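PT: before anyone asks, these are the final sequences, not the draft ones from last week. 1113 residues across everything. Please model them as a single complex and drop the result in this thread when it's through.
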Amino acid sequence: MINYSAFLPELFLVMAAILILVVELFLTPTSRRTILSWIAFLGTLAALLSLSCLSGSCPAGCNLGNGTEVAFNGFLKTDGLSLFFKMVILLATLLTLLMTFRYFKTHNTPYPAEFLAILLFSASGATALTSAQEIITLYIALETLTISSYLLASFMKKDKGSNEAGMKYLLLGAFSSALLLFGFSYLYGLTGTTVIAEIAKSLAMQASSPLAVFALILIVGGLAFKISLAPFHMWTPDVYEGAPTPVTAFLSVASKTAGFAAFIRLFWVGLNVPALQPVWVGLFGVLAALSIILGNLEAIPQKNIKRLMGYSSIAQAGYISTGFLAIGPMGLTAVLFYLFVYLFANMGVFLAIVIVSNKTGSEQIEDYAGMWKRSPLIGMVLLVCLLSLAGVPPFAGFSGKWYLFGAAISKGYVWLALVGMSFSVVSLYYYLQVVRQALIVDPKDSSPISISPLEKLVLVACVVITVTLGFWPKPVMDLAQAAASSLF
Amino acid sequence: MIEYSWLIPTMPALAYAVIILFTRRSKVLSGLISILTMAACLGLSVGILIEVLAKAPADRVISISWSWLEIPPWTAHVGVLIDPLSVNMLLVVTLISLLVQIYSWGYMHGEVRFSSYYSYLSLFTSSMLLLVLSNNFLQIFVGWELVGLCSYLLIGFWYFKPEAADACKKAFVVNRVGDMGFLMGVITIGMVFQTFDFAEVEKMVSTGVANGTFQTGFIAGIALLLFCGAVGKSAQFPLHVWLPDAMEGPTPVSALIHAATMVAAGVFMVARTYSLFLVDQHAMTVVAFIGGFTALFAASIALAQDDIKRILAYSTLSQLGYMIMALGVGGYTSGMFHLTTHACFKALLFLGAGSVIHGVHNQDIWKMGGLWKKMGITAATFVIATLAIAGIFPLAGFWSKDAILAAVYESQIPGHIVLYFAAVFTAFLTAFYMFRLFFVVFTGEPRDHHAHDHAHESPFTMTIPLMILAILSISVGWLNLPGFDAYSKFVYHGEFHEEVFNWTMAWASLLVAIAGIILSALFYYWKVFSAEKTAETFKPIYLLLKNKYYVDEFYGWMVKKFVFGLASICTWFDDNVVDDGMVDGSGWITRKMGSLFSLTQTGYVQNYALVIFGAVAVIYLMVSF
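LR: through. Structure below.
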């Protein structure tokens, strides 16, 4: 008997995706966009709601789960930690779908059904990844996520930029997958098992071998690509710039969150053995610092806002890795909290980008001049979300970074926290460039920008959450602490 | 009701957000939101009062905490503390705020930034209520700074007037001096006691002093640091200079913030942390003498001022001095009682002055005169408030002021007799200058016929709050009628003990007040004595008072001489070393590095792949060797 509860959210996503493909056959081109979008939206919403049932706190009192569900001989285990990751990924997917509604209106996609279905498949890969307890399962989930992402990135097939982005992402993604698989194969060779917990046991009994270190480095290389950690980050700006904006938003949050989930499962559980731990912790320290420095510095001369957000996301990956180094409940809580904060700040900005470029057709920062006068709400979103990303109090990004750096300092990585803090100051420069354009410079064209009620709601929600969590992080911190407790 | 007390500061804060974000374009809607929220807060406060009164005196302290920020091992709390003291303040703040907001509807009529004005009033009230309800030092500090900010925004509401812009800066800077001490006190408390909770700190202090862990002098030091904050916010000497200038704001704001509520925050804070002050008599003596000195000092300045609002401002300083003095001599109940009565009649005086200014468009009392006939309600309510502040039987001020005088007379601190006579003399001066104001403005012949012809009674939105406050100014004092003592039995510190009303002393001070009024009438009503001639005869004293003892000039000189000197050295260093060298230099280097690193982003996949594989190889080599 298969325990379906363990992959219930994934089931919803996949069923919605299949339903979209089937229903599309019966629809006329004029009506299909709305109906299909709604199916996708409801499917994701159902997946999101099922999380609360699985956590055992279902408001309706169903008995689907009690926090931990195991299936396939323990290869897939949905615990509190994976539920938190799934929540972030599914929220990101919902917001991506919302952007897609608007994006479809201007960019005439001939295949909306395929786009939506692939997006949902991709999301199901990401959520499944967070439950994987075994490296083959993990790899398959990861490839479900990334292969779908290649397609999504290159989906605007008449658009040169999108094609370039998809091609680059495919080639470099394939290289990184090769590294990852190569590393996995050594790991299997050394331990004779693919279950992560067993790998840890087996490695703990062995003496440190250069092969294990080699495997570790290959795995870091392969996975660091997914979360765009320097020096495996170089694809990021190019792909972010060229891909359709909703896809960029999806990659920047959902894909990154899944990557961190994989890192935590593999390294905090599988490779957390005395012989290897100092190696990868030191390695991550260097990579995190490198990402923070390179991401922030290279963002400065950017003129295109999507490209800017690409560099920003590299720096953000560096900040999150700072908390990842602090192995323990405090570090994990900080990472989870920051991912939640990052989700809303980043998604708010990308939704604003989609809305603006829909009207102006431009993604250049200088075309954001006077955005405040054209739409006060977008001005507000840019101000609050970008300052939150920069870590300015009283926004959520500040408390998030506070916890991340605090966790790092408590484990003795003062130098890394200092790098993070000083380069947060550097990051203000480029974030404020956008804010300056939007709030201070006079608009060249002052025609107002219209926003649909649903989008307004989401934009306001992003602002409210970002501000509230700055003042009162407790609700999400409690959630993150509960999630972290399933690992410790 | 008590479990919903957190709504009291939250609702006006939400009203602020709603007005700023959504309803700013509609003046009517913004005003209504603000007024209705305040009415709801008042209703809730009354409900809490009833609930607290229903409890036995020992159960009247309810503290509820929520954890706010957790940074292990340390947790910051937010909470509400419901006890007679905070319930008293809740009622004062919400009631005065509601009346002032209704009054403002008429007074600010035609103001372009009407909605912003109401949003600031809401934010102010919210911050004040946060401060009042706070159960820990951290939260009280947050509320403290927020009311300071709102005061700044509202003094400078007409920021295009240079005087208003200067005044709001002055208020902010002078308050900073006091707040510095307050913050140091709060930090010391956090470090020494490892908690910010009032009740826990109180308990640790009492056990710590009893078993000798803490020296009384140390606790007194903390208490005096906290008192610095009170000196700034309640405008006690030597930080009193900001309050008279704060009168540049709209008059209802002066009534709400700079007379009735915010300036009383310092008094409230001393009452809230009273246990720390009680530990050492030296601290109490300092508090009492600063209060007593301010009372006399400000009253004497008020004698020679010409601006209607400034006279009232100095009388506020003087009355706040009374309250601080009362707390200093151990008269906890009398100090808080005077705060309550003063809030009513001082708000009334300011709103009445606002009504006059609204009528004649002027603030100089020598351009007014004979307004009694033109503005009946304003004049009638004004005379009630004037009698109340002068301490005439049986109005509110009589009961509270005499309670303070009795407390000073019976106290144990050294030199209390000196304080007593200073306080009685202040009462005399108060009666004199308040009636000087009244006679000059409302009686006699009009001095400026143009302004007089223009004068008119204010609309009913303004006169109704005046009438309500007039009723309160008469009757609030009756809460403490001898034998009834409802107030003393409700608000007290430590153990309740009966206080016998000293009628002899009360009649004596009443006579003093009446003497003040008669002297004032001789000068300004019957004009038997000539004010001009007197000023001429005592010219040096007159000039000294007129120029407020030259304190502003002294501060100005100090700042120019010392602060500016130091500042110019710092400016040079900043311009040449910090700005040109470090800031511009690091900015230039950062931008250049950004451009340089961007060159690595070639756009060629083969380069990127090379980096990926190269990085893996380099990392392996580095780890292995």
